[in-house]
Backbone:
């Protein structure tokens, strides 16, 4: 779903107001981190999915490793590291 700039502004204002009302800072930061991770993941995957008729996880990983753009590489490594941290923290919560 693509949002128009007006819809985006309304959604952004709503999200900001919801976070300001949140009294549990752990939950609000968890939400912020989840939103960031999902947005960055989608941003990184979109060029691959858009240009491949039969996308796959293995194909994406190989394609991502071949990218030469330093900003793409930085974002890819950042998302990969945050995903590992999310998995570690989730596993610790469930023991």
Residues:
């Amino acid at each position: 779903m693509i949002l128009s700039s007006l819809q985006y502004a309304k959604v952004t204002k709503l999200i900001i107001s919801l976070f300001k009302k949140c009294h549990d800072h752990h939950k609000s930061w968890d939400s912020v981190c989840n939103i960031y991770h999902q947005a960055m993941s989608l941003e990184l995957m979109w060029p691959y999915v858009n240009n491949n008729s039969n996308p796959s996880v293995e194909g994406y990983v190989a394609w991502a490793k071949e990218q030469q753009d330093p900003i793409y590489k930085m974002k890819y490594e950042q998302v990969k590291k945050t995903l590992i941290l999310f998995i570690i923290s989730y596993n610790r919560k469930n023991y």
